[in-house]
Write a structure and sequence with these properties.
Number of helices: 2
Largest sheet: 4 strands, antiparallel
Strand order of the largest sheet: 1-2-3-4
Number of strands: 4
Oligomer: single chain
Structural class: alpha+beta
Strand content: 15-25%
Order of helices and strands: HHEEEE
């Protein structure tokens, strides 16, 4: 004759999770999230720097529109749209912003949040390392024109 053993469960069986299981799960999710969020910190800085470079490119476009209508660059420094771009660059973390314009040309340069410099000078837009001399070099020359000095 076979005997059947019944095992009775003690207490209530709710089918839920214990507090310890929930805390361990939250801890594991937190650790995994930190592995994902750490590399994204640099992406935010790169995005802000890209926005500043976009503003510099828009200033270049505005400068070319001004020279096509006025036949000189003198109004670049006082143009309302350029002032809006400069304000946006400050909001995006750009520092040490220098700008200058006269009839022959203009120069706008800014230190980016990521440690590089952005520059636009009478049509040129570029990025260079902080270790380099933060100058707006004109196209095809090693030195910027003395009359287009941003400092």
């Amino acid at each position: 004759m076979k005997r059947k053993f019944l095992i009775k469960k003690q207490g209530k069986s709710s089918g839920g999770f214990t507090l310890i299981e929930i805390l361990i799960t939250i801890g594991i999710i937190g650790i995994l999230a930190s592995f994902i969020l750490i590399p994204l910190g640099g992406a935010k800085t790169k995005a802000r720097d890209a926005r500043v470079m976009s503003d510099l490119d828009q200033i270049r476009t505005i400068g070319e529109i001004i020279v096509s209508t006025d036949e000189n660059y003198a109004a670049v420094n006082t143009n309302l749209d350029v002032n809006l771009m400069m304000s946006d660059m400050v909001n995006e973390g750009a520092k040490n912003i220098h700008r200058y314009s006269n009839a022959d040309g203009y120069c706008v340069e800014a230190e980016l949040e990521g440690g590089k410099w952005g520059c636009v000078n009478s049509g040129l837009i570029l990025v260079f390392n902080l270790s380099d001399d933060p100058n707006c070099d004109g196209p095809g020359s090693n030195k910027r024109p003395k009359d287009i000095n941003c400092e």
